[in-house]
Specification:
Mean pLDDT: 79
Radius of gyration: 17 Å
Strand content: 15-25%
Length: 160
């Protein structure tokens, strides 16, 4: 069985989900230990918001390997994911040009579902209000998909 770029993207998205969940679990366990050992008046926040954002950025970068350019936009609280792998970019561009192709649409729907699930778990790491944004590889001004707190905010396929 040949592993396609779509399969790698799906695996990457699932890996993000599991890592975010593991990180959140670890953070919960640590905070639970701190609450029992320290009086409330002496507790300090051990991780700043920017450190949490940086950690989430690192996790996302690790999982997309070299297939995507990943950046964090603090103004919009968005993790910008731009495909740079030729095959992945080609698949995205094929979908843009052929939105009615059933196989491309099925792959896209799987990617959307992965983004929804990962986005739903992102608040466990950085808090609410953060987005995962898939950027058009041909035009960085255009978003193809925006998902925040598990909800699809924008899906270019709905405009077709």
């Amino acid at each position: 069985m040949k592993v396609t770029k779509d399969d790698k993207v799906k695996i990457g998205c699932l890996a993000i989900i599991f890592i975010v969940m593991a990180f959140a679990f670890t953070q919960c366990m640590r905070s639970g230990k701190n609450e029992t050992k320290e009086p409330a008046a002496t507790q300090t926040v051990s991780t700043s918001q920017s450190e949490k954002e940086q950690k989430a950025l690192e996790i996302i970068k690790e999982n997309f390997d070299d297939e995507c350019k990943i950046e964090f936009n603090p103004e919009y609280k968005a993790f910008m994911i731009t495909p740079k792998d030729d095959d992945f970019s080609k698949d995205i561009l094929n979908l843009i040009n052929n939105p009615d192709d059933p196989q491309l649409r099925e792959n896209w729907n799987s990617l959307v579902a992965s983004f929804e699930y990962a986005s739903k778990n992102l608040p466990n790491v950085v808090g609410n209000g953060y987005s995962l944004v898939l950027v058009n590889p041909e035009n960085s001004e255009n978003q193809l998909l925006t998902v925040s707190d598990g909800e699809v905010i924008y899906n270019f396929i709905d405009e077709q």
